[in-house]
Amino acid sequence: MTRNHAEYILLAEFDVDKGASLTHQHPRPVPTDEHYLAELMLPDGAHLRENDWTIFFLNQEVPPSNLAELPYTDPDNDEDNPILYVLNLVQTRHDREARRGATVKAMAICTRHRFLDQYKHILFLALENYFTSPSIEVLANLYDAVNSMDLTYMPKLSNHEKLILRFAETNNMFEEKFIEADVAEITGLQENMRMSRVGSSQSELEAEARKRHRRKTYIDLSSGQRKDNITSKNKDRHFYETEVFYQSIKISVKIPLTIYREEVGEFFMNKLITTFANGQVSAPRPLHPHLDSGSPQPHPLILLINALLTQKRIIFLGHGRPSGEVANYVLAACALGSGSGGVLRGFTNRAFPYTNLTSLDQLLEFPGFIAGVTNPAFEEHPQWWDVLCNINTGKIIVSPLLANPALAAAPLQDLRKSIEVTHVKSLTSSSSSSGAKKDAQVERYGTVDAEFIMDLMAAIGKHYGELTIRTKIQNYIRRFVLLCALYEYQTTGSTDIGYTPQSFEAHPHPSGHSPPASFTSQLGFGLAFSDGEAKLRELALNKGRIEGFIGTISYEYLRRDTQAFLEHRTIRAFDVEHQLVKLRDGRHYLADDEVETVFRAFADAVTTEAQVIELLSHLPQNEGGLAPLAFGLLHASPQIRYLAVRILNRIHQDRTGSRFIRSLNVFFRCAYDAQRLQFATSANVNTTPGGNSTGSGSGSGGGGMAGFTAVGHPVYQSHSTTPPALATSVSGLGVTTHPTLSTSPVATTTGLTEGWNGQGPSASGYVPAPGFNHPI
């Protein structure tokens, strides 16, 4: 069932005699108390400002005490979301003829869409019209205009595709998914386009249709084919562009395609961080194991994150500030605790971006609420909250009435001993070369927390974009979740929020041989540590907030989401994230045989398009993209270089993967082209003039270079033995000529040269990367 874009349109007014009152509701009454709605739409102090944008939520349900009864909704399906997001605009018009010299009215749109900021323009116009002509027809026109917005052709992206697009540095990622929408736009099939032409003459309509239907062409140099240029190359595919017509005014709408479930509205994480990063925590205050992760004086931001993760009741107080500004702090806090919405969820279900004393009873029914208020009376009642964040002063106050729970004892002896590990010793070794300021931060807040805070503040100081800040927060919360899974596995022997040895399915080798029993244990899974002492130390330092997180609403959602992911994942033989962290992080030393095991696992397991997409979702372009795998092209071991070529070839056969290949820097692309050429040439060493291989056997892994030895190969001449995988054989190696070197024989090998341009086998064998000249 497709829902309307706008569920309700509301109009509230302030009456001198009655106070705040709800005047109109269209198309039907909202099943919520009218006085409650009117109080939210006309926030405290609204009469002091000409305009004030406010966001609040409706249809929130108090979670059951037994979390097993918590309703589960698909995180990728907004249709399952029961919450209504309300964008409200209140305006004050000064009028000498009005009582008290001013008129205050507010209009709101209730929607299930999280991109509320896209409705600001049309809501502003509608409220202007209502001041001019106060009637319910204004609400009806607004309702019809919003619901006429055409999203028929908006691409439906999977979770992995959203991750890829969110961090894509190019604007044409998944361009092919927009073809249907662009064709509709070009041929003038969209309903709103026809509506905009009402009143035009027939000749004008025909001329416009011919103009829009005229197709441009270009020559595809890679295939020599003439192609229709349907899609626009100037559009940013991070957004779906459409439009709304309101009273003959065309309003452009850009719908973000990559926002997470917990990202609502337009807020800035930088503002939340800078407000409280330089503030202070109230002192003296009661120590609490859920809030003090490894330090009696945690950084204010870390304390706030801990409060969010452990489901504490949090108030953001902004006395004298616009309610919309306070609401943005709440929305940013939801994203902060959830890892920008990409790791955890359940925060917006208990969030009240703006509330007041009228709804206090309802607020206190929600465990772990996150609320924004402007009334200073809240600060005087610590029994109402656990943590209060004063926006005006940047100060975070912990309620003296916050109960201090008893922590459960860890059953493992090594975990108990880790609590006694000397903190200073480990900190000295990890930060001896980073300067006195870093040493002080690390000693005070702990290694991981200190590095996170310093990295975050450095990024803000260098004016990095909002996405970069949110990505760092997402990585930090993701690491915490992995640490929770490790803690559960260490203390109970199992976990429902992460991988266990039983989570993996043996992936048979393409040659038909089963992998060794130690394959999974050698690859590893979960959070990677440089050594065992570091693992035990971090578990001990985070024990308090981990046990505070277990049993929360977010934990229950995480448990269910993890089980759904494990059931539907496409790469089932190993933990993809763990392997990439080992390759990416220079603190983890890997021997050559370990590196080879990792690369062989990727080469054998990533064969289908869905598996390529899942792999690419772990390789965000804004964090280096394919670099962890591309470094294999520069490895001293020829076997690892060969496996790297196999992996990149399979990635390049996918349309999305080919864009990742093109985004490699020039050094990696040089190495890629050179290694492909060398391996293809070596495969041809033992072929007959007729093009038939002297070896025998069958192909290996859809990209295996079989049927040749290393004899005469310059890369292998210094090696006494031939790499095992390169000594296998494949039949049917054809010989062709390098397109730029007429005397260089090149092998056309299935999986190595096929699909170079994502269009099937190459007609000329080896083809260098698109738009790139081979260095030879």
UniProtKB/TrEMBL annotation:
Residues 684-704, 757-776 are annotated as: Disordered. GO terms for biological process: actin cortical patch localization. Residues 7-544 form the UDENN domain. It comes from the Eukaryota. One of its GO terms (cellular component) is plasma membrane. Pfam families: Afi1, SPA. Residues 692-704 have a biased composition (Gly residues). PANTHER family: ARF3-INTERACTING PROTEIN 1. This is UDENN domain-containing protein. It comes from Tieghemiomyces parasiticus.
